[in-house]
Amino acid sequence: MRVTRTRRAAMLLAVLMFAVTACAGAGRPVDLVTVNSVERPRPVGAEENPAPPSTSASKAPDCDAEASFRPPDPMPAPGQMPEGSTMKAIQDAGMLIAGVDQNTFLFGFRDPTTNALEGFDIDRVREIAKAIFNDPNKVQFKVVTSAGRVDALKNGDVHIVVRTFTATCQRWQEINFSAIYYMAGQRLLVDQASTVTTLDELGDQKVCAAKGSTSIKTIADYKSKPIPVQVDNWTDCLIMLQQGQVAAMSTDDTILAGMVAQDPNVKMVGERFTKEPYGIGIPKENEDMVRFVNGVLEQSVADGSWADSYDTWLGDTGGSRPAAPTPKYRK
Amino acid sequence: MVTASPPEPGTRKGVWEIPATAARRVRRSAASTPGRLFVIGVGLVVLSLLTGLVGAVALQQKQATIDNLIEHREPVAAASQQIYRSLSDADATAASAFLAGGNPPEELRERYELDIAQAGANLAKAAADVAGVPQAQEQVDQLSQQLPVYTGLVETARAFNRQGFPAGAAYLREASGLMRAKLLPAAQELYSIDFRRLAEEQAQARSFPWITTALVLALLAALVATQMYLVRRTNRLLNVGLLVASIAVLVGLIWGTVALLIESNSVADGQESGTQQVELAVEARIVALKMRANETLTLVARGDGGDYEKEWQALVPEMSGDGADNLLARARELAADDETREVLDRARANVADWVELHKQVRELDDGGSYEKAVELAMGDGDDGVAARFGELDGNLLAAINSGREQFVAETGAASKALTGLVPGAAVLALLAATGVTMGIRERLREYR
Question: Membrane-spanning regions, if any (chain B) (predicted)?
């Protein structure tokens, strides 16, 4: 009994002494500054899991979004727009104001070397300017974001919007569309190393698309519940993918082709899972302008400039050149 | 060994009673006149030495505060405003280089590199000073963590630009967003913390040493009272020792008061026509940089830059017009000399020209002449915005530098006003103590 007590006391003493020396140890180095996580830079306006826009709640009535208004016959000659028409007003003003993109490679982008706007969409604008003024350069380009396209038309800031603009029944309620000049479809862009091929495999992962686009809506509504990340410009998605901030980017194959052209370390995968008919946006009240633009589009397909433009911009993106979409008209 | 043995109740009691015994003895001796004189003499000597010590320490501290203002506090504040300036200029330059298109001009690249190097060097200077100020530490951490990220993004943008890909523009937008959302706010906060600390230390340098003054006045009163007591007791009007002591204390009081008044006045002048003027000029420079960045980014956005233009318009009243917000007018009111006022007048003229040119830029851009608008805003012509902005920045820098010189001159004068006061106070205190000792001993001798 006594032995154990003594031993216990000795042990206690030893522990105490150890504790005291440990506490009093003056030789401990001062802690280094430790940074455990760094917040990554993000494109301006990037937003994770955005609240769905209020308009998406109201279901648009069914319609044929691809059907536009029949062009006039005959088409007015360049520089001689009919009196009282929207085109005449534009001709008198001396400048066609076009809402375009300056950040989407191959469709509407600013060439950093020449400072000029170029691309498949830009070619369409110049064709229309040529048809009105007989001068493809009488254009004032105004850059609009995907989300700002409908408002730019409704506010009268621009005469037309040519910006990978999908004709939908919802948008038809607020603006008019020209006939379809290109048929795209939504696909998926991932890192070369990724094994993902469909949105089904991206549940709970971040997928990027532009604000106000049809693609972001498709992602948000998709059954596997990916986390939508929206940005102002398509190229912002590419840099988020490069920086490893999103698992994939998903939008029209044409836009994605522009991304692949800029970075060989990403690849387009899977099949088209939506149909995105591109039309030129025109204010609701300017039906004469819609008809006129449709006439211009028909001419450009007929004289081969549509095909030339396709070859210039989209020729290298793989596959053979598709036939130009056949225009559909309502009345 | 008494201490080693267990303490006896008696001894312990003896130890405790020493102060009481001493007090009793003092009381007993103070009952007689010579005893009282002795006690008064000891008290006066102690008070003189204490006053001298407290005064010398307080003055030494004040001197140290002033020297610290010039050598440390103000340079750090200047360094942190330079961080903001360099970062903001780097951002505007990167955007200009982008607008220039193609391979950007060599001078824009050099300017950007210089800006980044300067920001880094000044950040190191500001970082050496933030210990114990957690808020400032936070800003320095933010700046030193994000600055390398920013430059990385800009270089990536450059690589893509050279290949002709719009990804370059996207990286540049991300970089600029990082700058405007994190780096610039941190730099602005750091610089306002540093200016606040400068103002606090200036107030400290101006403060009046109340404790020392109270001690001096008490000493003087005690000396006068002792002399009156002696006159009553000994019927002798003059006691040389005590008189010398009183004069020494009086000289110390007058010297100290005058020197401190001059010092506090000089520090206040340095604060008003120096620091405060500098602060306004710095703020004006920051506003000018913000305006320039907004102007550039409006053009980069090419029609989608309405917010930048709105911000530009909101900043204009701070730089021009007759409003109370006009920083340049307020700086001019505080300026110390005609030269600085002229520099600020020139800056105001630059702003007026710029506002006029900006209107033209917007008209050109909104009217569809984008290339001409870019040329007017970015071109290196003598009539362009870039030239006006360069002049404005130069004039504001001149105003900042002259304000800083004014600060150093005035604060240096404040430091000079205190010259010799510390040893002087010590010598005078010793003189007073000696005088008291001699004077009291002379009277005591008469009682033998």
Answer: 37-59, 208-230, 237-262, 421-440
pLDDT at residue B220 above 80? Answer: yes
Q: What is the pLDDT of residue B10?
A: 46
DSSP A180-224: --EEE-EEEEEETT----SGGGGTTSEEEEETTSHHHHHHHH-TT
Q: Which of A220, A279, A275 is nearest to A252 (CA)?
A: A275
Average pLDDT, chain B: 88
B8 in any annotated domain:
no
Are the beta carbons of B166 and A95 separated by less than 8 Å? no
For residue B291, the enclosing domain spans: 44-445
pLDDT tops 60 at residue A94: yes
C-alpha–C-alpha distance, residues B196 and A279, integer Å:
59
Query: Does B23 fall in a domain?
Result: no
pLDDT of B171 strictly over 90: yes
How many domains are contained in chain B? 1
pLDDT band at A20 (very low <50, low <70, confident <90, very high): low
Examine residue B26 and state whether it is found in any structural domain, yes or no.
no
Q: Which helix (H) or strand (E) holds B110?
A: helix B106-127
**Residue of B158, B172, B173, B176 to mutate when probing chain A, most A C-beta within 10 A:** B173
Q: Which two tokens stand for residue B272?
A: 């008003």
Choose the mutation target among B174, B362, B369 for the interface with A, i.e. most A CBs under 10 Å: B174
Q: Which residues contact B305 (CB under 8 A, 6 or more apart)?
A: B297, B298, B299
**Contacts (Cβ under 8 Å, ≥6 apart) of B263:** B62, B66, B205, B414, B415, B417, B418
Tell me, yes or no, whether B345 lies in a domain: yes
* Residue of B167, B303, B304 with shortest CB distance to A238: B167
pLDDT, tens digit, for every residue of B45-65?
Answer: 999 999 999 999 999 999 999
Which one-letter amino acid corresponds to residue A144?
Answer: V
User: Are B170 and A233 within 8 A, CB to CB?
Assistant: yes
Confidence class for position A9, pLDDT limits 50, 70, 90: low
DSSP annotation of A49 reads S
Q: Is pLDDT of B362 > 50?
A: yes
On the question of pLDDT at A16 being above 70, the answer is no
Residue ranges of domains in chain A, CATH in brackets: 60-183+276-329 (3.40.190.10), 186-269 (3.40.190.10)
State the ipTM, two decimals: 0.83
Q: Give CA–CA dist B133/A300, Å, rounded.
A: 68
Q: Which residues of A touch B368 (CB under 8 A)?
A: 95, 97, 139-140
Nearest-angstrom CA–CA distance, A205 and A246:
8
Q: Which of B103, B181, B304 sits opposite A145 (nearest CB)?
A: B304
The shortest C-alpha distance from A282 to chain B (Å) reads 18
- What residue type is A265 in one-letter code? N
> How far, in Å, CA of B300 to CA of A164, rounded?
21
Region A267-274: mean pLDDT is 92
**In a mutagenesis test of the B interface, which of A34, A35, A106, A143 is the best target, namely the one with the most B β-carbons within 10 Å?**
A143
